[in-house]
Specification:
The chain has 289 residues and is an all-alpha fold. The chain contains 11 helices and 2 strands, in the order ααααββααααααα. It has 2 domains: 3-212, no CATH class; 214-288. One of its GO terms (cellular component) is plasma membrane.
């Protein structure tokens, strides 16, 4: 499995970006300016990950050049990201460099590079890929069931988002003392689990939105409040400052509408059971109402 995770991440990122571009051209050519504008709007939240990449670059004591800024403006920061803690040529850290270091670098160097791109990719996937997935899924279900390009774009976005979650879990597993890289069968099972979890929630919300329009925001809002209060009750200490801790719980509560991310050490069976209980209720309510 050494090197397979960044290779697949790079391939899925390229496929997802290409499919998104095809969807944008598809709506523009067909004169569907509303869907064209919404698809373009889904790109905007992704700049948060690009901004974080620049901030990390500055924190490492480097001044980003014009070429690096242009790459981040084009949302290509994950393809080439500079990081002062690594020893890549020219202090360059990117998916391509991760692939190179995987073949001959030290374990600490590999983890430092893989950790940066995994965290940034997960953030970009949640902020950009997830809204795009919801939009394209709604187009396929409610507007154009025969739409091939929106369907392919939605499918690749689903797979890319699921893989971003799996690659992040793979990275956190490598951080634990004495833990080796999981075998391919484990990675495949994680991918199937994440894909099934995301697809059922997205489909339930899309079907509910098709029938009840904006009432879907009320259902999602109730779920978000329940998850946010639940996170507050757990007293997670991943963020120290009070205001940032509250903001973190609110943002993670929104993420929990679609998927579970463990933010506390130790056994998580009880937390996963609570998450599935609330999520199952929400899915059944959206599907049967």
């Amino acid at each position: 499995m050494r090197g397979a995770v960044p290779r697949l991440s790079l391939a899925l990122l390229a496929a997802e970006s290409g499919a998104r571009l095809c969807a944008i051209i598809h709506y523009l050519v067909r004169g569907q300016l509303g869907w064209f504008g919404l698809t373009i709007a889904c790109l905007v939240p992704g700049y948060a990950a690009q901004l974080l990449s620049i901030l990390w670059f500055r924190a490492d004591g480097h001044s980003p050049g014009c070429w690096l800024l242009v790459l981040h403006l084009l949302q290509l920061g994950l393809w080439k990201r500079q990081d002062g803690v690594t020893t890549c040529q020219g202090d360059s850290c990117r998916y391509w460099d991760v692939l190179r270091v995987e073949t001959g670098g030290a374990a600490g160097e590999v983890l430092a590079q893989l950790g940066d791109v995994c965290v940034l990719r997960l953030l970009e996937a949640l902020l950009q890929t997830l809204p795009h997935l919801l939009l394209q899924a709604y187009v396929v279900v409610a507007v154009d069931p025969a739409g091939f390009i929106p369907g392919v774009s939605a499918g690749l976005s689903l797979l890319s988002l699921a893989w971003a979650l799996v690659s992040y879990s793979h990275f956190t597993c490598l951080l634990r003392p004495g833990h080796l890289s999981p075998p391919a069968a484990v990675i495949l099972c994680l991918l199937l689990w994440r894909t099934g979890m995301l697809s059922t929630r997205v489909l339930a919300l899309v079907l509910f939105a098709r029938l009840y329009s904006f009432w879907v925001f009320a259902v999602a809002g109730v779920h978000w409040l329940l998850m946010s209060f639940w996170l507050v009750a757990q007293q997670t200490d991943i963020v120290a400052q009070t205001c940032r801790w509250r903001l973190f719980n609110c943002l993670l509560g929104a993420v929990y509408i679609f998927c579970y991310i463990n933010v506390r050490p130790g056994p998580s069976k009880t937390r996963v059971a609570v998450f599935y209980a609330v999520s199952t209720w929400n899915i059944l309510y959206c599907t049967w109402m």
